[in-house]
Amino acid sequence: MRKMRVLALVLALTMSLTALTACGSSNKGNSGKDNTAANTNKTENSGKSNNNTNSEAKDTITALLPPVSGNFQDMFQQMEKDFNELYPNLTLKIEPASWEDMTQKLDTQVNAGSPPDIAFIGSEGISKYLQQNMLMDITDLATPDMVNDYDKIPLEYMKRADGLYGFPAYMEVHALGGNKEYLEQAGIDWKNVQQNGWTFDEFREAIKKGVVKEGDTTKRYGFVFATAGVTGKDYLNILIKNAGMPAPFTKDLKYALTSKNFLEVLKDVRLMIDDGSMPKELSSVDAGKRWNMFLTGQTMITGKGLATFENNARQNNEKIKANDGSAVSGSIPVEYIVLPVPTFLGEEPISSTVVDGYVTFRGKKEPTDEHKANVVKAAYFLASGKVAAMTNNDLFAAHITKSARDAAASMPIDRNPDNVAAVEKLLSHANPPRPDIPSDLGAKAIKMEDEVIVPKLQALLANEITPEDMYEAVKAAAIKTFGEDGIVKD
Predict the structure, then answer these.
(1) SS3 state at 173
(2) What domains can be seen in the chain, in order of their start residue?
């Protein structure tokens, strides 16, 4: 019953957002909303500031932020200005980072004991930094107005045990994306797939039909997924959730990736390459190359597919139409279609849900109470109201705060209604948050992923090892890490 209530809450959340937001691509059209968002923030934080005798002391809050959306980093100067206008005694200093060097920059600063006050990271990374004692618990610092601004479920992803370690920016679903024309040429009923899903066997046959060859040369693949660089861990994480492993640990905290189902997924990963439906060079395909291949017609289906890709494809179509040379070289008009990840082994669909956000850090030296309160003000400013509205509209991501929904109400959006319905369907069976997983176990799982799973996956994709080899290596490392009694045996 609890699971059904969680899923019902998620579905209600997404249904309620569709009419208002469904998330668009423009960061213009905000007139009439700026003051509302600012006044909301000022009201929510004024009570906290007035409780501190030094509330007007000068202070600087630092934030390390990647290009969350296409226009996000272009807004940094305005974001800093708006925050200072809201809190004249406070300065928000934003350091930009690329997605590729975000983790390295953050880890370098954390290891030096002087992390930024705020960093934009995935909620799954909280355990890693919590284990290093570098996160700031804001449970008693976040005002009731801040907390109540949020839809309940997204905020749960930023918790571990009884602690809250930041504010989420969005709740996204990792899906696949298809070229509508190619899907229909292959005879794929994509509308049915959007609503009813497909099994791996059905998916395998579909992507075979998407392959186009000229002699021995493959001109178009059925499926391409980015697996190099920062996307190295995405592929398996998305697939295994639909194979009975929605989290690294079961409810009784056994490490899940030693399940026999994990081996079957590894076999299927190799099978799609051996079929010729995916490139043999898949291990070298990074996010940029994956998207380039999709826009230039070299693949029928791409992954991981985010809602923002519909917007990106539409923008490239406009550039092609303008014929001004700004479109991706060699690209063709593409109508982007949201598709679910296939299910494996008769398991129920569990959508890979990502909740990223503004995580609050502390250094080796304990920050003052005043500075802690100021960090919370800055994190909430970034995660709500006008900033969140513009960012999430740019991403086509669902708004998860009332203040962002209010700020976005006047922003024009242009989305394929079939894609909106598809995302709603995916969110209706999103993987639930797991704040019950202890931070030490979560940190060990991340280390397992970085040091064992990702390197072995690269070797599997390159056909250097077999699925059985990878499975045994992961199992051996899991036993060493979690013990014989700490893993799934089935």
Answers:
(1) strand
(2) 2-170+354-423 (3.40.190.10), 173-352+444-486 (3.40.190.10)
